[in-house]
Amino acid sequence: MAQYYTTMNLKSRFAPSPTGYLHLGNARTALFAWLAARSMNGTFILRLEDTDQQRSPDIYEKALLEDLQWFGIDWDEGPDRGGDHGPYRQMERLALYDAYYAQLQMTGQAYPCYCSADDLAAERAVQRSAGKAPRYGGRCRYLSAGARAAREAAGMRPTLRFHIPDQGTLSVPDLVWGERHYALADLGDFVIRRSDGSPAFFFANAIDDALMGVNLVLRGEDHLTNTPRQILILQALGLPVPDYGHLPLLLGADGQPLSKRYGAVSLRDLRGTGYLAPAVLNYLARLGHHYSATAFLDSAALAQGFALTQISKAPGHFDAVQLQHWQHEAVQSLDDAAAWNWLAPHLQDKVPRGQEIPFVAAVRANIVLPADALDWAERCFATPAMDAEAAAAITGVGPEFWAAAQTTLQVADGDYRLWTKALQQASGQRGKSLFMPLRAALTGRTHGPELAALLPLIGEERALTRLHAAAQRS
Ligand SMILES: Nc1ncnc2c1ncn2[C@@H]1O[C@H](COP(=O)(O)OP(=O)(O)OP(=O)(O)O)[C@@H](O)[C@H]1O
Questions:
Q1: Residue 328: which residues within 8 A CB-CB, separation 6 or more?
Q2: 228 and 165: one domain?
Q3: pTM for the complete prediction?
Q4: Is the peptide bond before 79 cis (omega within 30 degrees of 0)?
Q5: pLDDT by residue (tens digit) across 133-154?
Q6: Is 207 in the pocket of ligand 1 (CB under 6 A)?
Q7: I want to staple 303 with a disulfide (CB 3.0 to 4.6 A). Which of 38, 216, 314, 343 is the partner?
Q8: Residue 85 burial (10 A CB sphere; 0-12, 13-18, 19+)
């Protein structure tokens, strides 16, 4: 393996392009890089790779920072807070790359290439028809100074290509995949600066990592094949090479990698639906990383239990059921006041003032998302929709039961225990055959939170109306 950081100086980063809302794959990659840094008291950098200006309107940068903050990821250096290795937006770093292009050209490790898109397409077509893998054949490698000058005079704008040695093998250690070997001849001279002067992704990305002192690059497997090229660039420039680990991609239900381009489920969507950040953290931290603890963990404990050796190579699939499991755990970990703060924006004044905390305490074990709480708020304080099972439970007991239910409730003055005891005596029903019809009449459902906690919220008056309606049905 490559050089290893010590627990004292680990520096990792997340380097997204602000071209859309962060999806769960991006978030998982950011999280692993952050957990690695936090698990070793290291430094975590946020860098924006915004060179695709057409696809990087300002809204996405703002959203990206907000979404990461909501998620609970913080950074020690970044575009909004600066640091010793800035700027942290690639568009503001363009001038930095010039010296490295010049150095590569001076040492003969890069050369201008005047081949047009048509020339290159034709070359690839010939290679393919001969059963060879397409790669640049090196036509502009050894152009004379005069030939270059003639092309420049004709107004041709060259790309800059990295000159790869024709022979040899490059061994690339990877923290997740182990050592991989690449025949240099197969890589082909590749473009490091486009003809419009903009840097190719893997050039700017590698230089920035080196200049920013990043010594651990954890990123998606989509970058696996960029790594040998990036190592060659860094070696040619005498810059430090970080350790690399490529994380398996997160796939959607269609089996395709989640991608901003194709509108995958975003952190923003989940937040809008009411998912709690610690739920998403617990879900994603375990997607492709083994934790021995199965309990809900806070981010400090997730960092403490994180180890690069526990990362799996298997691709992860987005699993809504697992996410809901962690959401349920996260909801249970809140105290009632925090749970109310979470729910309030979603409940649209459906809970009367003063009833907020008792309402939360009553329904918390039965909700995963705010939509569930909204349903229970309507069942408590408005008119509950009746499901078929509940309707059957109501007609299953005779009219005498419902007459007795109304009288005993009034006599008990709304006290749940006194009421159900008196009704048991009056009707002869007990256990499930007593409670199920009551629950059905009062809430419109046959399962849910404790009736004893719901009755005070429903109140005696509404309860009597519902019992009366049940009597009419039976
Ligand atoms: N499906 C995925 N699963 C895990 N990590 C991913 C996935 N897609 C991208 N990443 C990682 O997220 C980080 C940021 O990547 P980037 O901003 O290019 O996202 P992207 O979704 O690939 O965007 P785009 O669709 O615009 O190419 C990179 O480390 C990349 O490898």
A1: 368
A2: no
A3: 0.91
A4: no
A5: 899 999 999 999 999 999 999 9
A6: no
A7: 38
A8: middle
Question: Residue 293 belongs to what domain range?
Answer: 267-373
Is residue 87 situated within a structural domain? no
Domain count, the chain: 4
Cβ–ligand 1 distance for 257 under 6 Å, the answer yes
Please tell me if the CB atom of residue 265 comes closer than 6 angstroms to any atom of ligand 1. Answer: no
| Pair 288, 432 in one domain | no
pLDDT recorded at residue 2: 46
Mutate to test the pocket of ligand 1, among 17, 24, 26, 261 (most ligand atoms within 8 A of CB): 26
Asked if 468 and 403 count as a contact pair (C-beta separation under 8 A), the reply is no
Q: Which atom of ligand 1 is nearest to the CA of 26?
A: 12
pLDDT digits (tens, 9 = 90+) for 192-212: 999 999 999 999 999 999 999
pLDDT tens digits, 423-451? 999 999 999 999 999 999 999 999 999 99
**CA Rg, the chain, in Å?**
32
Query: Do the annotations mark residue 421 as ligand-binding?
Result: no
Q: ipTM > 0.85?
A: yes
**CATH number for the domain that contains residue 224:** 3.40.50.620
Whether residue 101 is found in the same domain as residue 196:
yes
